[in-house]
Amino acid sequence: MASGGLQLLGFVLAFLGWIGIIISTAMPQWKMASYAGDNIVTAQALYEGLWMSCAMQSTGQIQCKVYDSLLKLEGSLQATRALMVAAILLGLVGVFVAVTGMKCMKCMEDDQVKKMRMAVFGGVIFIISGLAALVATSWYGNRVARAFYDPFTPVNTRFEFGSALFIGWAASSLAILGGSFLCCSCPRRETSYPPTRGYPKNASSTGKDYV
């Protein structure tokens, strides 16, 4: 039952990737800036995420503030939000669809063809979800890198990649890999050959007396 093991492995990887996408979306550490200047006394580091910005104090306490207005945000940040939320919703749908098509589940046992199609369809949804998260994190990371290397950006306001980006990249890769395994877990159809026709046996010749 090699296909069943590959199917289970694909679902576990895709599910872990989906959980990682949720964690990455909720984390505020999408980009971070460290300060070492004398003019900064209370704050050691600033973090910005998709939903809030946080400041870590010298005492280790972190204070976060949710963005006030959606209309005041940059269009790229709103698009990143939309892609990550879409990836989460697609992953949720992929979980239900893939579970329905798992061989270890008893639902749809009467029609194995539809059951396998459900597993493959769930894998496709996981791949789309991972691609959406990968596009969102890569796009956001590209903006952070371009602003960091921009000579017009002040040195004390430059941001670097946050841990949420790395989690998002890893999670999207897991979702794509797991979805690919789900798509490949469908067993190949065995080629049915027509039954071979046996050659008729020659009737045993009766012995004849020759004169």
UniProtKB/TrEMBL annotation:
A GO-annotated cellular component:
plasma membrane
PROSITE patterns xref list: CLAUDIN
The Gene Ontology terms for molecular function here are: structural molecule activity
Cross-referenced InterPro entries: Claudin, Claudin1, Claudin_CS, PMP22/EMP/MP20/Claudin
Which family does the UniProt entry place this protein in? Belongs to the claudin family.
Role this protein plays? Claudins function as major constituents of the tight junction complexes that regulate the permeability of epithelia.
| Compartment(s) where it occurs, according to its Swiss-Prot or TrEMBL record | Cell junction, Tight junction; Cell membrane
Q: Which UniProt keywords apply?
A: Cell junction, Cell membrane, Membrane, Tight junction, Transmembrane, Transmembrane helix
What protein name applies here? Claudin
Annotated organism of origin:
Campylorhamphus procurvoides
* Membrane-crossing residue ranges in chain numbering: 7-27, 79-99, 119-141, 161-184
Segments forming a coiled coil? none
Membrane topology is: Multi-pass membrane protein
Pfam families documented for this protein: PMP22_Claudin
Q: Which Gene3D superfamilies match?
A: 1.20.140.150
